[in-house]
Amino acid sequence: MIRKATVADVKKIQELINSFAKTNAVLPRSLNSVYENLRDFFIFESDENIFGCGALHITWDNLAELRSLVVHKEYQGKGIGKALVNECIKEARQLQVKKVFLLTENSGFFKKLGFAQVDKAALPHKIWSDCVECIQFPNCNEVAMVKDIE
Ligand SMILES: CC(C)(COP(=O)(O)OP(=O)(O)OC[C@H]1O[C@@H](n2cnc3c(N)ncnc32)[C@H](O)[C@@H]1OP(=O)(O)O)[C@@H](O)C(=O)NCCC(=O)NCCS
């Protein structure tokens, strides 16, 4: 089941994200960051455990970022990642956001979902606030991808 996250989910969300952060697939998140951004999160739940999450973070009037998208290894390849992205896009549309972007090393997955690679410099400077906290910055292999959702 995919649903919006609640405060009761925060510790499990943080654990899941940080288990992938070790591979540099996503940025690690502090508990504080998950609490403060909790309303961004959708989770995939099964048997009262959380095996997937993804977040839609509003950046500006026409732009939102898809971030912290992870699916537990045992649940990958079952359409859960795609479903989480679709929920984020649905919410972005409801909020009248026009474009969703993300930074990733996994462009193949997002290309399949209709995202196109763009020059990182095309994105507003504001988005680098997370990047500068990353130990990979500025030598990371992530590419920027955007989907027009109008
Ligand atoms: C990327 C990730 C979220 C995908 O989740 P998932 O649940 O395994 O993906 P889905 O089953 O929903 O796949 C949807 C489609 O994308 C395809 N796909 C999945 N991973 C892919 C990849 N790495 N490259 C290309 N296509 C991929 C699937 O084959 C499927 O195609 P189909 O619709 O034609 O069957 C998951 O692999 C993951 O957590 N990876 C580690 C963390 C990560 O890289 N997160 C993204 C950070 S920006």
Would you give an account of this structure?
The chain has 150 residues and is an alpha+beta fold. The chain has a single domain, classed as Gcn5-related N-acetyltransferase (GNAT) (Aminopeptidase), CATH 3.40.630. The protein is 29% helix and 30% strand. It contains five helices and seven strands; from the N terminus they run βααβββαβαβαβ. It has helices at 10-21, 31-36, 80-94, 107-112, 128-131; strands at 2-4, 41-46, 49-60, 63-71, 99-104, 116-118, 143-148. A seven-stranded mixed β-sheet has the order 1-2-3-4-5-7-6. The chain is globular and about 40 Å long. The two termini are 27 Å apart. The mean pLDDT is 94. Bound molecules: coenzyme A.
Q: Numbering strands along the chain, what is their spatial order in the largest sheet? A: 1-2-3-4-5-7-6
What's the CATH architecture name? 3-Layer(aba) Sandwich
Shape summary? globular
* Cα Rg: 14 Å
Write out the CATH superfamily name: Gcn5-related N-acetyltransferase (GNAT)
Average pLDDT, rounded to a whole number, is 94
Fraction of helical residues: 25-40%
> Could you spell the SSE succession in H and E letters?
EHHEEEHEHEHE
Question: What structural class do you assign from the helix and strand content?
Answer: alpha+beta
Largest sheet: 7 strands, mixed
Extract low-pLDDT stretches: none
Count the DSSP helices. Answer: 5
**CATH class division:** Alpha Beta
List all distinct small molecules, including ions and cofactors, that are bound in this structure.
Answer: coenzyme A
Strand content: 25-35%
| CATH fold title | Aminopeptidase
The number of domains: 1
